[in-house]
Design goal:
CATH topology of the largest domain: Rossmann fold
Shape: globular
CATH class of the largest domain: Alpha Beta
Strand order of the largest sheet: 7-6-5-8-11-16-17
Low-confidence stretches: none
CATH architecture of the largest domain: 3-Layer(aba) Sandwich
Number of strands: 17
Number of helices: 11
Mean pLDDT: 97
Number of domains: 2
Oligomer: single chain
Order of helices and strands: EEEEHHHHHEHEHEHEEEHEEHEEEEEH
Bound molecules: 5-S-methyl-1-O-phosphono-5-thio-D-ribulose
Radius of gyration: 20 Å
CATH superfamily of the largest domain: Translation initiation factor eif-2b, domain 2
Structural class: alpha/beta
């Protein structure tokens, strides 16, 4: 296995080609990352986004860095350069823990391998590991789907927020993976997708990929979620996660918290679908999760059109934290976790 090609990313052996998610669904453009800085910029600028996709891309970025410096036969010089590579990649987005998880996995293997291998041989070893991360991600998502699909009944309508689909992962998706698995199992499932202001991952990406997959989808603006729940149109909410603290608090796209509060008010189960790599056992609770604040123009502009007075003050946190008491269950590749979260998370993380 030397390559991988999915809708989200392709590893060619010398570069990482990413579908440019900034332009979807209006244009299908691609960005070819030929070095680690290209990958870092693509993560920062959200050419690629979604926690597992960010993690896998960073792993390939690490490989590109190793390739760039593999002419350095001095192991210490090589290590120093790869420390710079790791730093550049880790400074891109702070919230999704999969980024740090993937980089630490690569870095650990690098250090182990350097004990008995030359820098030249290391590139191949790291490349294999990055491919492993990518292939594993697809399998993990399918397993999350299998574990979660029994939570849905034939005829259910699911509300989702942001995009936790194939585009947010290497393929298949986490939250959308559960929906895909239920549909593959013969269930008739419909989706309501929040548009997900300000970046519109729901309107642009979730809707695009669900329609492509033939899953009946209805787009609503974020402020309609409460009313559609009140009207009895929603049977379950399923979202992804960027980081889950040890106590089960969940950081996900801004607006997820509001949806969870609304789901509680209406007695609707609120599920989080995420791989174990999204669980940050070191972080005690949601208060310890760094929340990225993004450029204010993401709120001022819709695509290239400014909709508001130029100098208006803006607050643009990209994520929020849903407290564990609002989470009905966390669907992982190992099992479906339910409260008490801290005990069950620690147990599954050490399996
Ligand atoms: O800012 P984004 O688009 O990277 O945020 C993505 C999300 O919040 C997703 O729900 C999360 O990363 C899970 S993706 C399987």
């Amino acid at each position: 296995m030397k390559n991988i090609k999915t809708m989200t990313m392709e590893w060619t052996g010398n570069s990482l080609i990413l579908i440019d998610q900034r332009y979807l669904p209006l244009e299908e453009k691609y960005v070819e990352c030929r070095n680690y800085l290209d990958v870092a910029n693509s993560i920062k600028d959200m050419v690629v986004r979604g926690a597992p996709a960010i993690g896998a891309s960073a792993a390939f970025g690490f490989v590109l860095g190793a390739k760039e410096f593999s002419h350095l036969s001095d192991k210490n010089l090589f290590l120093n350069k790869l420390e710079e590579v790791k730093n550049s990649l880790s400074k891109t987005r702070p919230t999704a823990v999969n980024l740090f998880w993937a980089l630490n996995r690569m870095d650990k293997l690098l250090k182990e391998s350097l004990q008995n291998k030359e820098t030249n041989d290391i590139v191949g070893i790291l490349e294999e590991e990055a491919l492993k991360i990518a292939y594993e991600d697809i399998e993990i998502n399918k397993q999350i789907g299998k574990n979660g699909e029994s939570l849905l009944n034939d005829g259910d309508t699911v509300l989702t927020h942001c995009n936790a689909g194939a585009l947010a992962t290497v393929d298949y998706g986490t939250a959308l993976g559960v929906i895909r698995a239920a549909v593959e199992n013969g269930k008739n499932i419909q989706v309501f997708a929040d548009e997900t202001r300000p970046y519109l991952q729901g309107a642009r990406l979730t809707v695009w990929e669900l329609i492509k997959s033939g899953i009946k989808t209805t787009l609503i603006t974020d402020n309609m979620a409460g009313w559609v729940m009140k009207q009895g149109k929603i049977n379950a909410v399923i979202v992804g996660a960027d980081r889950i603290a040890r106590n089960g608090d969940v950081a996900n796209k801004i607006g997820t918290y509001s949806v969870a509060v609304l789901a509680k008010r209406h007695g609707i189960p609120f599920y989080v679908a995420a791989p174990l790599s999204t669980i940050d056992i070191e972080t005690k609770n949601g208060e310890g999760i760094p929340i990225e604040e993004r450029n204010h123009n993401e709120v001022r502009f819709c695509h290239k059109t400014r909709l508001v007075p130029e100098d208006v003050n803006v607050y643009n946190p990209a994520f929020d934290v849903t407290p564990n008491e609002l989470v009905t269950a966390i669907i992982t590749e190992k099992k479906v976790l339910r409260p008490p979260y801290e005990k069950n998370i620690v147990e599954v993380a050490t399996l």
